[in-house]
Amino acid sequence: MKAGIRNFIFGGGLVAAVLAACGCTADNAPRLTGEEKDIIDAEGIMRVLTVDDREDSLLLRSECADFPLKALRSERFGRLADRMIATVTDSTQDGVGIAGPQVGLKRRVVAVQRFDKAGEPFEVYPNIRVEYLSEEKQTGPEGCLSIPGIYGDVERSQTIVISYVDIRTLETVRDTVNGFTAVIFQHETDHLDGILFTDRM
Ligand SMILES: [Zn+2]
């Protein structure tokens, strides 16, 4: 991607106006399937699904499930986190975020570049939900690794509160995020509800 538009490429959809109820127990989450394990255990950069492919587009419209807490403790989850970051930062993608469905997993996980943190690291958030969306909005151009060649302005909340599971403690933790990084989180968590940014244009 060209440097000028790079900052606007992320994976994403409509955060339901109704905030996701949280406090859900991840222990009820379905175990990883053999197919999911195969996707995670493969080598190299992950295949990024696009709306150009019919089967891919159906998966991109799916609701995602949480990871069981046990799965978050496993080396396999660490491998997935590493591979999602390797994929979104690969020169062929060069995005600022990516979500589970974009790599073929109907699971609530996103990798987001934290422009609001020193060093602007990519971080991975399992079992993530947006718990609060500010009334104050910001509008800016977006694109999506799964929708090649399409860009458009989207209105997003200026400030959000996310919840996710900390893989070290397995506790649900919350974080308040502002500005452009909050836009990336909204785009990526939309993907987990089968929503694409073009739905919001
Ligand atoms: Zn996207």
One letter per element, helices H and strands E, the order comes to HHHHHEEEEEEEEH
CATH-defined superfamily:
Peptide deformylase
Strand content: 25-35%
- The total count of helices amounts to 6
Question: Which structural class fits the helix and strand makeup?
Answer: alpha+beta
Mean pLDDT: 90
Q: Which molecules other than protein and nucleic acid are bound?
A: zinc ion
Low-confidence stretches: 1-8, 11-24
How many beta-strand runs? 8
Helix content: 25-40%
Q: Write the CATH fold name.
A: Peptide Deformylase
Rg, rounded, reads 15 Å
> How far apart are the first and last residues' alpha carbons, in Å?
21 Å
The spatial strand order of the largest sheet comes to 1-2-3
Number of domains: 1
User: According to CATH, what is the class?
Assistant: Alpha Beta
Describe this structure in words.
The protein has 201 residues and is α+β, with helices and mostly antiparallel strands. It is built from 6 helices and 8 strands, in the order H-H-H-H-H-E-E-E-E-E-E-E-E-H. The chain has helices at residues 3-6, 34-41, 54-60, 69-72, 75-89, 179-192, and strands spanning 97-99, 109-113, 122-126, 129-133, 137-144, 147-157, 159-165, 172-178. The strands form 3 sheets. A 3-stranded antiparallel sheet has the order 1-2-3, sandwiched between helices. Strands 4-7-8 form a 3-stranded antiparallel sheet. Strand 2 (109-113) and strand 3 form a beta hairpin. The longest helix is centred in the middle third of the chain and has 15 residues, at 75-89. Mean pLDDT is 90; it is low at 1-8 and 11-24. The chain binds zinc ion (ZN). Zinc ion is lined by residues 10-12, 144-146, 187, 191. Zinc ion binds next to helix 6.
